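Hi, here's the filled form for the chain we discussed.

Project: internal
Contact: R.S.
Residues: 193
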Amino acid sequence: MNMNHLELAQEIKTRNMIEMAWGYATMTRVLLKGSGEPIVEQLGRLFAGLELIAEQKDYDAAHADFCDWFTRRIRTRRKKRSSYGHAAKVLDISAKVYVYYCAQPSDDVARRLVPMLHGAVDTQIMKKLANLYPDAGVRSKTLHEVDLEEYKKLQRLVARDIEATFQSQIHPVQYDDIMWRTLNRPRVQNRPL
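And the returned structure, exactly as it came back:
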């Protein structure tokens, strides 16, 4: 294979992973039909720059840029603006699949990025956090109600629960996996593979 073929293979591999991640986020039922292609393209642009991210503040800035783009451009099936909660869930799950599951863009970069990734929050996790920490004032019942400030509050609660429950031994992206399986698939969570 010449270099052009190798670059093409890598480009297609990356796109396939991003499309799988987008599908895994299960937001297609909420968002306007045809939203997938621009979301996949924007994720591709963000993921192409992951190697340059060195610190949490850099990742958080890239995260905020994506979510701002998403809330301006993507509509729900009810033809309303999407929320920060929708945008963050798409990005958080897509980054989890691409970086944490697939170790992209490289093993070294993925190891550096995993601690920076945010924990994806769905309705069940929001409900759990609100019940565990009533003093935190979680007001959202659905992702459609989650704005930037509520998202930041939820991420602080994820960190708080990681400290309380897991003695800070896991990252937010791992918390998301554990909580999603525990809350959404309780009967199969402890079955051996």
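Let me know if anything looks off before we file it.
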